[in-house]
Amino acid sequence: MEKQIHENFIKSSNLIFITAGLGLINFFFASDLLSNGFNITVAVFSIAFIIGIGFLVRQGYNWMKIFLLVITLLGLVGIPFTLKNLTEKPVVGIINIIQTILQIWAVVLLFKVPKQTKN
């Protein structure tokens, strides 16, 4: 019997994959940050990490909602940097804000998944 995945897991993972795609687009607008190997490694790891989260969410792992909530809350600490990006590199800042909104939306969708009842 195949496990039924609630549609909010799929929607949430789609939003997470979109944020990863936006991160790739940001590479082109923040190319100065990718001037050395360490920054490139961090950027690639970050995108891979987000894709991994999206994959686990798509599999319907309920614990991912807590994990994603914690990661998103930790990410909100970076809002001052996002605002700085908005003034220095407007496109990068706007993409960062869109990513934050999509990630929050993904978390909300996960918390709207009803708890499964045992028969």
Q: Describe it for me?
A:
With 119 residues, the protein is mainly α. The protein has five helices and no strands. It has helices at residues 7-29, 37-58, 64-75, 79-88, 90-111. The radius of gyration is 16 Å and the shape is elongated.
Task: Briefly say what this structure is.
The protein has helices at 7-29, 37-58, 64-75, 79-88, 90-111. It has 119 residues and is mainly alpha-helical.
Report the major sheet.
none
Class per helix and strand makeup: mainly alpha
Radius of gyration: 16 Å
Give the terminus-to-terminus CA distance: 16 Å
Poorly predicted spans:
none
* Mean pLDDT over the residues: 88
**Total of helices:** 5
Range of helix content: over 70%
Annotation, overall tally of beta strands: 0
Strand content: under 5%
What is the molecular shape?
Answer: elongated
Q: State the order of secondary-structure elements, H for helix, E for strand.
A: HHHHH
Which oligomeric state applies? single chain
Keywords, please?
mainly alpha, single chain, 119 residues
List the helices and strands and how they pair.
Elements: H1 7-29, H2 37-58, H3 64-75, H4 79-88, H5 90-111
Helix pairs in contact: 1-2, 1-5, 3-5, 4-5
